Request: fold
Amino acid sequence: MAPKNMKLRHIGIWKYHHFLPVPENGEIVSLDEGKTTLLESTRHAGLHYKLEFENPTGSFKDRGSTVEISHAVSDGYQKVVCASTGNMGASIAAYSARAGIEATIVVPGNVPPIKLKQIQSYGAKLIKMKGTYTDALKKTWEMAAKDKEYMLTGDYPLRMEGQKTIGLEIVEQLGMKSPDHVIVPIGNGTLIVALHAAFTQMIQSKTIKKMPRLIGVQAKNCNPLGIAWKNKTTHFTPVKKPHTIAGAIECGNPVYGMEVLTAVRMSKGEILSVSEEQMKKAKLSLAQKEGLYTEYSGAAVQAVVEDRRWKGTTIALLCGHGLKE
Reply:
């Protein structure tokens, strides 16, 4: 049962409220996110695709946004600010519109026009920065420090709490069993760290017995963690001028970089890197052979899927829709 003071307009991911930080006033801002399909592959035995592009704004970011914006409303904020390569900005803008609060989204210079249009369609203020995602992120810190009316949203702990629900759903969809591998695209690293936290909590509560191997994927043109993994170190060197077709994971200085390296190591997983050409081929292959159209972050995952034979139950996360690029 939900807490007595919890006001559920839609259930969304909040069915897992006992794993989530419920706002003090119990008011939930939701677009009925979550409950995404786990689809079995037609070509690879044991492989399932988690279709996160089924979420309301077309990406997995909605799971974190419902938590962040619910807390923004509970804490009395009327304005939020967020740095984004596109998907998170659209999600924060949508949930802010739902809540009736003002959203300002700061983006780097190479965000696809279709994502900018989506952000603006929700009525958010859009600030375009010259430079990289890191430059956009620094801008939001400056804005939040200067104006205390802003709540800083993005790849922070509250978002991670919402993203944990992907792991919870996967286990439920597999009949309360843990998969053997989960293949995850890495941008700032929030998702893979959140998944590790979710599986850890389920092991501690004896919901599952084992930790799946977490397989992180980066583009070779932006792979500071892939290089660190190869060098067997928890320290990484940021990529100053990253550029990849997989814009959703074009984060040269991942916010949770060290935590990602630790989580992957603890799960006995690995971090792999794929080329631009591999992603282009994988995007077409996934569409033509599985009927699934994903953005290039998902194509990066598919490239890893096709690179080797994965034994056991493997989950490939397709985090954003192909129509968003």
Q: What stands out?
A: The domain at 62-153 is CATH 3.40.50.1100 (Rossmann fold).
